[in-house]
Design a protein that fits this description.
Layout (H helix, E strand, L loop, with lengths): L6 H13 L11 E4 L2 E4 L17 E5 L4 E4 L5 H12 L6 E5 L11 H8 L2 E4 L1 H6 L7 H5 L2 H4 L9 E2 L4 E5 L2 E7 L10 E5 L4 E9 L11 H12 L5 E6 L9 H19 L7 H4 L11 H17 L3
Parallel strand pairs: 4-5, 5-6, 6-7, 11-12
Antiparallel strand pairs: 1-2, 2-3, 3-4, 8-9, 9-10, 10-11
The structure holds zinc ion (ZN).
Zinc ion (ZN) binds next to loops.
Length: 309
Amino acid sequence: MQHHIDIKALIVGMTLMSSSLLAFDYKLEPKQVSPSVWCFFGKLEAPSDSNGGHMSNSCYIQTKDSFVVVDSGATYQFASQSYNAMQKIANLPVSTVINTHGHDDHWLGNSYYKEKFNAKLIGTPLQDKTYKSGDKTRIHRMTSPEVHKGTIIVKLDTNIDKKTTLAIGGKKITITPTGLKAHTPDDMFIFLEDDKVLFSGDLVMNGRITSNRDGSVMGQIKAHSQLNATGWEVLVPGHGMIVGKDALKESEQYFTLMKERVIKAIDNDIGAEDISKVVTLPEFKNKAMYKELNRRNVFEAYSELEFAE
Ligand SMILES: [Zn+2]
């Protein structure tokens, strides 16, 4: 028969194809931001096959005998490749991974560190409540299997709900939950005392617009004063490359202007249907993701502030 299909050959072929899915090459280069901290800065865009989901920042703190990772990135392969790059700087295991909040682009790399080092995984209570083993997350949906293969959800070892100081390999690392709904209902920030480095998670972004879908304008503004109270000298945002004294500026300005303008519009009886047309933030129109996210942020701010005052 002309159109005979050899089922056995087809199955063998398909099996070969799926097991030989090529690895995604992140081409990672760590950037040193302080004497003992290196970071991998993500792209200022949505997760996709071209960036491999790497659009958040992931950092390594070097201690005397291990690394502490702050936010583990979006995939197993990202975490594995970031470790390989760091191993060239110091051949140390990873003892601890701290996740700043429950958004999946910041912690799906946990699976690598648990498998390879049995690292202690630390995060917020909401992360474990939101996701359980076997779930498919946003990153799984927005990237192909080649990118997210091996990326699974691992339960945290410790859920932090109050200010906690860890002493790891001679470094003092303080984890502070904001106690607010800010970027999410339970964000936390991490401060490395020795280097005065603050890891803000998504309480701060720069170079791009934030997504306030799970957050609060008022909470963000309060969280920013908590961040400033640490006395930071280097601030690594959840997304964005500015880590010096201007690192927090854009986020502070964004939420302050958002609050002022939305409240003014409410006072002028602007309704939900018109709010995103009336309130704009032209100061930010050239920042990445303004088109995708700003209107929704304005709308969410309206829903929050309409009942607040
Ligand atoms: Zn986030």
